[in-house]
Design a protein that fits this description.
By secondary structure, the protein is of the alpha/beta class. The protein is built from eleven helices and ten strands. The longest helix is centred in the middle third of the chain and has 14 residues. The radius of gyration is 19 Å and the shape is globular. The N and C termini lie far apart (50 Å).
């Protein structure tokens, strides 16, 4: 579904991506994680064809996204669902019109089917009352939820989320993450990719994490294994954000027993 090989990207005076290689297969759910400025958003922009790579290969559904155009490129894009960090809703449209626009361009549903899909999506993100509202009438969390609904309309084969909980409070972040997982019920062979700097969101979203630092992949695998046996930097990056959580919550996250034993003292 997604394949990056020796991907590089340089801007004047800055090399953002030095050597990025990974693939995401049918049915996978993956978290792309790293410190702020590590290149996560740049990877997504290249993957979506928004900016060209400086080198390497980028394949989407097995096709080189930067070397196809016209109808083939349009067909590839229709199989994608994307929720950007800045949401990107049309501010001159209502919520209903934003979702209708996406459904008209990504599906072959008729008017009645589109109307039913809009109602279903809005119920899924717990915002049925927001149908006639404009973007400026929505809170930041509400805008993110509408962005998620738009990204998942049409049951895309690949759904990509860029920092879906950035800047939101913990309660709203949990609501949004749960909505992504609940609404992502498309084809069985679809794949989901979330880019985030929040370790807790990353491990709750997916078993597999790809960790980026200074423009390279420093780890790729099950997060529990990396937490216990990754490189010292990887263990610190993952662990420092988890140590100090309430013990019951740490157990709810299913942190490895060995990790809990190291950092939590149980009272007798």
């Amino acid at each position: 579904m997604i394949e990056l090989t020796a991907l590089r990207k340089a801007f004047p005076g800055t090399e953002v991506l030095k050597d990025i290689s990974f693939s995401v297969h049918q049915g996978e759910r993956v978290s792309l994680i790293g410190p702020g400025g590590s290149g996560k958003s740049t990877i997504l922009k290249i993957l979506l064809g928004l900016v060209p790579p400086s080198g390497g290969e980028v394949l989407l559904f097995g096709r080189p996204i930067h070397r196809v155009g016209g109808e083939e490129r349009e067909q590839l894009m229709r199989r994608l669902g994307v929720a950007f960090q800045q949401v990107g809703l049309f501010d001159f449209m209502t919520v209903e019109e934003n979702l209708r626009f996406a459904l008209e361009h990504k599906t072959k549903k008729n008017t009645g089917e589109i109307a039913a899909s809009i109602d279903l999506l809005l119920h899924g993100v717990k915002l049925p009352h927001a149908k006639k509202l404009h973007t400026h009438e929505l809170s930041g969390g509400m805008q993110r939820r509408i962005g998620i609904a738009r990204a998942l309309c049409g049951n895309p084969h690949i759904a990509i989320f860029d920092e879906p909980t950035s800047g939101l409070d913990p309660v709203t972040s949990t609501i949004i993450l749960n909505m992504i997982l609940a609404l992502a019920h498309g084809p069985e062979d679809n794949c989901l990719l979330v880019a985030t700097s929040n370790v807790e969101i990353a491990i709750r979203f997916a078993e597999r994490v790809i960790i980026i630092n200074q423009g390279v992949v420093v780890a790729d695998g099950p997060w529990r294994e990396l937490l216990l046996s990754g490189s010292p930097w990887v263990q610190k990056f993952l662990g420092v954000r988890l140590i100090g959580l309430d013990l019951s919550y740490a157990e709810e996250l299913q942190l490895p027993a060995e990790f809990i034993g190291r950092h939590w003292k149980r009272s007798n």
